[in-house]
Specification:
By secondary structure, the chain is mainly α. 53% of the residues lie in helices and 7% in strands. The strands form two sheets. A three-stranded parallel beta sheet has the order 1-2-3. Strands 4-5 form a two-stranded parallel ribbon. The protein binds tryptophan (TRP). Tryptophan (TRP) binds next to strand 1 and helix 7.
């Protein structure tokens, strides 16, 4: 990673709780690729966060390796970015404990994601789910991150990270940099194909609504053919046309065409035609990613070398912050 002092630090991460889908790709990972020249970027796999829900260990292992290889297959260059597993840098868990002591019960109790997730998992409202945002604050604050690209659903967690940092800094002086959210110039919010008022998500129950990055061409086209539209049969971006708006966003994100150009292209043509074209363009866009993924996933030694180096370098940066934090609160420095 090139070390230029003027470069700002960016950190983000994804939980390996499911397969990476088109929403995560077009909405996040694809944008990360564009940042690698201008920023110092750290991208982690939030595997510790994944444990807040019950997940089969074999599934977690498979998801984690798959997502790690996909980061690279999507174009995140391991020479230009730091790629690592959160669990390989123990400072995340260590800082998280300290920050727990500077986070108020009431603050965590107000987190909308905690409320949503508790409602959905009434049988497993564990303490990790409650303190999830504190671990996320540790992820961010450990690296003195300037910018954090996150979706709408994570904004409240980022705000809390700032509040925790402000509270800590208020007592001990300027230890943590206050992170800002980062919204990419061209960000796409991709919705479920079968339920276009809901985000395309890893936990989506209807698998026809979710296009996974490793789906084959037939599956991709089948899912697009079944995509929910409306009764108007006119390809135009307008209020109330959630299904078509979503397909237009996807098509625009993979081809670079504007909504206007898309409307012209499909003027007088039916939805069947449009859905097939979008499906084909998505399959075409994902083909090189899948090719690269297949090469990588069979080369365990190379992946291992990348995540080993990532954890070492991230750990070095993290240690600088953690040492300061421990010292400021009065812990005896390690001999
Ligand atoms: N909570 C984030 C999500 O579910 C993932 C995440 C964990 C994260 N740690 C982070 C994102 C730090 C940005 C920065 O999407």
């Amino acid at each position: 990673m090139s070390e230029t002092i003027a470069k700002k630090t960016i950190l983000s991460g994804i939980k390996p709780t499911g397969s990476l889908n088109l929403g995560g790709y077009l909405g996040a990972v694809k944008n990360w690729v564009a940042l690698q020249e201008d920023y110092n970027c750290l991208y982690m796999l939030a595997d510790l966060h994944a444990l807040t829900i019950r997940i089969d260990p074999a599934v977690l292992r498979k998801n984690s390796m798959e997502l790690f290889a996909l980061y690279i297959a999507c174009g995140i260059d391991p020479e230009k970015n730091l790629l690592f597993f959160q669990s390989h840098v123990p400072q995340h868990a260590e800082l998280s404990w300290i920050l727990n002591c500077y986070t108020m019960f009431g603050e965590l109790n107000r987190m909308t994601q905690f409320k949503d997730k508790s409602a959905k998992n009434a049988e497993n409202i564990n303490a990790g789910l409650f303190t999830y945002p504190v671990l996320m604050a540790a992820d961010i604050l450990l690296y003195q991150s300037d910018l954090v690209p996150v979706g709408e659903d994570q904004r409240q967690h980022l705000e809390l990270a700032r509040d925790i940092a402000t509270r800590y800094n208020g007592v001990y002086g300027d230890v943590f940099k206050l992170p800002e959210g980062y919204t990419p110039k061209v960000g796409a919010r991709i919705m479920s194909l079968t339920n276009p008022t809901h985000k395309m998500s890893k936990s989506e129950e209807d698998e026809n609504g979710t296009v996974n990055l490793l789906d084959n061409k037939d599956a991709i086209i089948r899912k697009f053919k079944r995509a929910v539209t409306d009764s108007e049969t006119c390809v135009r971006h307008a209020e109330g046309k959630d299904g078509i708006n979503n397909l237009m966003s996807i098509y625009s994100a993979v081809t670079g065409k504007s909504f206007e150009e898309i409307e012209k292209e499909f003027d007088g043509r039916g939805y069947g035609d449009f859905k097939l074209t979008v499906g084909e363009s998505v399959a075409e866009c994902l083909a090189p990613v899948q090719q690269k993924y297949n090469d990588l996933i069979s080369d365990k030694a190379q992946l291992e070398a990348i995540y080993k180096r990532g954890a070492e370098q991230a750990g070095y940066m993290a240690m600088k912050t953690l040492r300061k934090v421990y010292k400021k609160v009065g812990l005896i420095p390690r001999a």
